[in-house]
Design goal:
This protein is of the alpha/beta class. The chain contains seven helices and nine strands; from the N terminus they run βββααβααβββαβαβα. Helix 2 packs antiparallel against helix 3.
C-alpha cells in the first residue's frame, strides 16, 4: 500500500475507510445495476475488505431493485454468429414506456446498447437517429430489426441502399428471434423504471 496526499492506495485502487463505505455503496449502486455489474464497476478503483459481499447484500436489499426484479423465464432465442469486430452487425427496435417511444440500438459484438427518445414514430425520425449513430460508430454491415412500419418502409429501404448496409427483419410471429435486442429492451425498461421510481421518491421526500 502507498499514501499519496493523505489518500491510501492499494496498487491503483483507493482504500475506502469504514466511515465512507455506506456512501460509496450508494454511489456504486446509483444506477441500480445487478450485483456483478456493480462489483465490476467498483473493483477497478475502490477497495475495502469484504467489498464484494457488501455490494451483493446491498443489491439484494434494494427496495427499488426488488420492486422491478425480472421474473426468470426461458424463451426460445435464435442465435447469431458473433461478428469479428464491433458495430459490424447491430439490431434495432422500438419500444414504449410511460407513454414515450424509444429506439434501442444494440451491437452484436459487445452487447453495448443505446436508447434514443423518439419525438414521433415516422421513418424519417428513425433514420435521423440512425445517421447519428452511424456517424459516431461507423456504418454497420448488417442492421437487424423487427417488422415495424418504420423499418419496412420505402424510405428506410432507400436509406439502406444509399448508405450501403444490409437490413434484415426478424420473424413477424417470433420477436424472440431478434434475441439481442429483446434482451436489451428488457434491461433498458427495468433501469428506466428504477430511475423513475428513485426520482419519485426523492420528490416525495422534499415535498
Amino acid at each position: 500500500m502507498t499514501v499519496q496526499n493523505g489518500v491510501i492506495f492499494k496498487r491503483e485502487r483507493i482504500v475506502i475507510p469504514k466511515s465512507m463505505r455506506p456512501e460509496m455503496l450508494q454511489r456504486i449502486h446509483s444506477s441500480h445495476l445487478g450485483g456483478e455489474s456493480c462489483f465490476r464497476k467498483a473493483r477497478d478503483v475502490l477497495y475495502w475488505p469484504n467489498m464484494s459481499a457488501e455490494i451483493k447484500d446491498m443489491v439484494e436489499q434494494c427496495t427499488t431493485c426488488n420492486e422491478y426484479q425480472q421474473a426468470q423465464k426461458k424463451e426460445p432465442l435464435m442465435t447469431h454468429p458473433i461478428p469479428e469486430c464491433p458495430w459490424s452487425r447491430i439490431a434495432m427496435d422500438i419500444f414504449t414506456l410511460h407513454g414515450e417511444d424509444y429506439l434501442i440500438t444494440v451491437d452484436f459484438y459487445s452487447d453495448f446498447w443505446e436508447v434514443d427518445r423518439l419525438v414521433d414514430m415516422t421513418a424519417a425520425t428513425v433514420i435521423e437517429h440512425c445517421k447519428v449513430h452511424f456517424s459516431r460508430h461507423g456504418v454497420p454491415d448488417v442492421v437487424m430489426m423487427d417488422n415495424g412500419g418504420q423499418f419496412d418502409s420505402r424510405d428506410f429501404t432507400s436509406f439502406a441502399k444509399d448508405w450501403e448496409f444490409e437490413h434484415t427483419t426478424s420473424s413477424p410471429y417470433h420477436s424472440q428471434s431478434n434475441g439481442k435486442v429483446e434482451a436489451a429492451v428488457k434491461i433498458a425498461k427495468r433501469l428506466m423504471k428504477k430511475s423513475q421510481a428513485k426520482w419519485s421518491r426523492c420528490v416525495e421526500s422534499y415535498s
